[in-house]
Amino acid sequence: MTAAGPDETGRGRSPRVVDAIRDAVTGGEFAPNQRMVEAELSERYGVNRASVRDALLELASEGLVERIPNRGARVREVSLAEAVEITEVRMALEGLCAAKAAERATEEDRVALRGIAASMRDAVAAGDMFGYSDLNKRLHELVMTISGQATARTVLARLRGQNVRRQFRLAMHPGRPAVSLPEHLAIVDAVCAADPVAAEAAMRAHLRSVVDALPEVEKSHPRRFDAL
């Protein structure tokens, strides 16, 4: 990874350090409960320890890192119960975004949505689970962008960051793409039809399906998979 570089003053938080560590945590470079050693992070990102310390404080406020008294910081592990709660909050917010997207979508937006939907069909047909997982993320992000709901998007980015490992495991779960594909297609169809009621219902139904699947996925994957 490219070093984040020191901040101009040599003191305080460098936004690039926060972003770099956040990306490493949500990208699976650091496993749940892994210690975040300031000296090691300072060397890795080429910044002073004060910048790293401030970055970890910010990430703790986002729920990605937890600080343990007299033991420093570590990557926070999200429990199954919390993962369910996060997804239930997503149901409300992403349902809102889907409704707004149906009201605001331009013809260019509809073309982009249908293009992702077609690629998702191809990925499932080819058994390309990694490709499908990436398209899944792109579809949700596009719906949020089209919605123009900046506040919801900010909150959702934080929630998805906390739950990113389970989202990946769910997308990789055998048989899951065949279940979620028609759910995603229903979202696209409703947004493209400019039907906000149907769009919200389709998004909420999809995320309810995620809630229902989480316990099964939790049982079927060993804890070491969290390191991915």
UniProtKB/TrEMBL annotation:
KW DNA-binding (keyword) present: yes
PROSITE patterns: HTH_GNTR
Example of a GO MF term: DNA-binding transcription factor activity
SMART domains assigned to the protein according to its UniProt record, in alphabetical order: FCD, HTH_GNTR
Entries under InterPro entries matching the protein: GntR_C (IPR011711), TF_FadR/GntR_C (IPR008920), Tscrpt_reg_HTH_GntR (IPR000524), WH-like_DNA-bd_sf (IPR036388), WH_DNA-bd_sf (IPR036390)
SUPFAM superfamilies given in the database record: GntR ligand-binding domain-like, Winged helix' DNA-binding domain
The HTH gntR-type domain, residue ranges: 11-78
Keywords of the record: DNA-binding, Transcription, Transcription regulation
Coiled coil: none
Origin: domain of life: Bacteria
Pfam families to which the protein is assigned, alphabetical: FCD, GntR
Protein name, per record: DNA-binding GntR family transcriptional regulator
